[in-house]
Design goal:
- The chain is built from 4 helices and no strands.
- By secondary structure, the chain is mainly α.
- The protein has a single domain, classed as Up-down Bundle (Methane Monooxygenase Hydroxylase, Chain G, domain 1), CATH 1.20.58.
């Protein structure tokens, strides 16, 4: 069983909180709140997304690299994470 399946409830809960934070930004914009408040909301979203990303990356490394069934699976997992990191760091 994959780590994302095992941790599905927790991950979906974090996603729902992120949705709520995005909706808060939308409401703040509609209410013409000061830009400082909106920037604070955006910073919170970025932190939450970074935390979620870090958790999934860590679980990926532990399950698919450290505990890989064979060298081919290990190389594939490393290639996957490498591609993601290239995109993430752009």
């Amino acid at each position: 069983m994959s780590h994302t399946v095992r941790e599905q409830a927790k991950l979906l809960s974090r996603i729902r909180r992120l949705k709520g934070q995005m909706e808060a930004v939308e409401r703040a914009l509609e209410a013409e709140r000061p830009c400082g408040e909106i920037l604070q909301l955006l910073a919170s979203i970025r932190g939450a997304l970074t935390g979620l990303t870090g958790e999934i990356v860590e679980d990926h490394l532990r399950e698919h690299v450290l505990e890989a069934e064979n060298e081919t699976a290990r190389r594939q997992a490393v290639d996957e994470i490498s591609d993601v990191l290239k995109t993430y760091l752009r």
